[in-house]
Amino acid sequence: MSTTPTELPTGRVPGRSWTVRLTGYADRTATVSCSTGACTMPPRSRDVAGLRRFAALHAASHAKAARVRERASCQCWAQSCSAHEGVRVHCSGSTVLVLRHDPAVARVWHLAEVCAACAKVMTHTRVVGLPAPTARPATAAPEPQAERSERSGQRAPAPAAPAAVAVGFSSPTPTGGDEAPRRAPGQARRGQRRGAPRGGQRR
User: Which of 105, 109, 161, 191 has the fewest CB neighbours in a 10 Å radius?
Assistant: First the structure.
């Protein structure tokens, strides 16, 4: 009989996991719960299909927001590889993020950081995240455009306006964050009056 390991491999941090669960009751209502306590869940409802869609989107949002840590230990190994009982493997390969969901049951969505070897033998599992590529060594910074233009006697171009950046994952909104506001096409800039002459001052 296998036992849960008590020590992590050298230099590793514990692998993380998230579980989103749909629970039904005798009165034909259901609830959705998440192992992350800070997440806001919808109230108990008879709309089981709607709650199931919410649960799937919530699990997908956790998968999108999570950054796979290359040094994370295999979460499956920490659970005595119960996710693939009867199939013995040695933990190896890079750390990946997997989503386990049995469509025949459709009640539990489980995300976990596991090793590539365990991920291959888990049933009803697909890889949804890979570790970020290792950053390349920093190189010499290019010469600023302003300095190059000053030496050549040319006027430096005006800096471009920053692009809108999507806000990060928020638990109460599992479908994703809001986007920073953008100026509508054709909208006049602040301080610019319509009909003002483009040339010099009037005489």
Answer: 191
